[in-house]
Amino acid sequence: MRQRLSLPVLSVYVWIAMVAFGGIAVETIVIYPNVFHDVPASLAETVEFFAVTGPADFFPPMGAVTVVAAVASLVLVWPVRDMRLWAGGSLLSLLLGEFLFSVLYFWPRNDIMFEDGAAVHSVEVLRQTAWEFEAGHWGRLAMSAVTATLAFTGLWRLHRERARAAALAGVAS
Q: What is residue 51's DSSP assignment?
């Protein structure tokens, strides 16, 4: 049963990780240059623009689903040492490079820019925080790429190993 489920579950995880990477890429390349182009005025415009829904409504649930899929994948491929390394590396990259980095680096800066804003902080503090946030987001994008790449490589290797085993079984019979 574990062997039967591992390929589809890992495939779903790879798909989710790639969608998350795409979302982070759009945020980094398309959204954030607009958000931070004229701090502090652009921050106020951003708060108005994202009044109904925004990245904070998408990425936390997406992150949770990604973690669940990564853990399920790791559990299912655990017996195969090589697969354990790819799935485990992907999960580690996800947890450290995306989740923990977000909590420790981005969340405080989000509070400064979007919760406190100009009512509490000087224009210079807001500009510096925006620069740090935007620069740090390239690191988040890189870690998301690592997560998706490790997951995809694990999927590819699992598929290749299964195809090789099936071919050998066909030759033996």
A: S
pTM equals: 0.91
Q: What is the DSSP string of 53-83?
A: --HHHHHHHHHHHHHHHHHHHHHHHTTSHHH
| Domain ranges (residues) in the chain | 2-47+57-172
Helices (H) and strands (E) in the chain, counts: 8, 0
Rounded Cα–Cα distance for residues 90 and 145 (Å):
10
- The model's pLDDT over 91-126, given as tens digits with 9 standing for 90+, comes to 999 999 999 999 999 999 999 999 999 999 999 999
Mind listing the pLDDT tens digit for each residue in 31-73? 999 999 999 999 999 999 999 999 989 999 999 999 999 999 9
Q: In angstroms, rounded to a whole number, what is the distance separating the alpha carbons of residues 136 and 101?
A: 9
Q: Rounded distance, CA 98 to CA 50, Å?
A: 22
Which helix or strand (DSSP H or E) is residue 86 part of?
helix 81-92
